[in-house]
């Protein structure tokens, strides 16, 4: 095995981690997988410790990476819904493996 710096363009794990960054994005993807379509307020209720600014940033980043879809409805009050894109749905096997690992080892923490 070679040693030295890891090139994120070559290392698939580094690339994946560069696309889905931090704990919140993984949790948001999981919520959209398990709950299907969620409004901003619903996500905020499910993630009470995340700030509004952080939630907005995380949703925007996931949207830019084309992992989630943002549907805005022209009404008052404004209505915005988030869901997984087809690309986002390809993360489901990874999320399921992470969830299984967490269920198995979280009781040991």
UniProtKB/TrEMBL annotation:
Residue ranges constituting the HTH hxlR-type domain according to the UniProt record: 11-109
Pfam families hit by this protein: HxlR
Molecular function per GO: DNA binding
Keyword DNA-binding: yes
InterPro entries per record: HTH_HxlR, WH-like_DNA-bd_sf, WH_DNA-bd_sf
Keywords: DNA-binding, Transcription, Transcription regulation
Keyword Transit peptide attributed: no
Gene3D superfamilies documented for this protein: Winged helix-like DNA-binding domain superfamily/Winged helix DNA-binding domain (1.10.10.10)
Name this protein carries in UniProt: HTH hxlR-type domain-containing protein
């Amino acid at each position: 095995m070679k040693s030295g710096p890891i090139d994120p363009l070559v290392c698939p794990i580094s690339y994946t981690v560069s696309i889905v960054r931090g704990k919140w994005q993984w949790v948001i993807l999981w919520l959209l997988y398990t709950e299907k379509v969620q409004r901003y307020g619903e996500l905020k209720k499910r993630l009470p410790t995340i700030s509004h600014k952080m939630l907005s940033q995380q949703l925007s980043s996931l949207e830019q990476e084309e992992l989630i879809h943002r549907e805005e409805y022209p009404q008052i009050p404004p209505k915005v819904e988030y869901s997984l894109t087809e690309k986002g749905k390809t993360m489901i096997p990874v999320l399921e493996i992470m969830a299984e690992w967490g269920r198995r080892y979280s009781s040991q923490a």
